[in-house]
Amino acid sequence: MEGADIFQTDIEAVYSRRIIDPLYGAKITAKIGKATFGFLNTLDEAPGREWAEEDNPYLGKKALFNIFRAKYDLFGNSYLGLLMPSRRFAGASNQVLGIDGSFNFKQRYNFKFQGLGSYTTTEEGKKLRAPAFAAEFNRYSRHLSLAFLIEIYILIFELKLVS
Question: How many domains does the chain have?
């Protein structure tokens, strides 16, 4: 997808290739000063298609995807970002809210982070909430580069948008 880089984050919360057969779709991206915005909306018919081997219990139903992303440029390739993807299908829904950032300083150091919260409602009405977090610190030099990375996911963390 052209312009998809606006939706990319270290924890892959947006995987647009899961949108297979859109009935319609709209993508808007804009840069206003130091702020960059992206919005994607599509209604996908693929989950409600007929299956070859068995009956699809979701026959005729469509999945609605909405993805909003904003990034604000700070200094020296540094930014703060907000991500809000969601998917609704067959009475179930999943929304993710995320914040991320990357800070470059003294030409040799970089600190990146991302925090996400997943909010899922199952077809049965069960509500699941879970966080995910990643942070990375890098030091670059001519002869030595060092990196420290930590990622924390709660086992019930869901990104139904990508599955």
Answer: 1
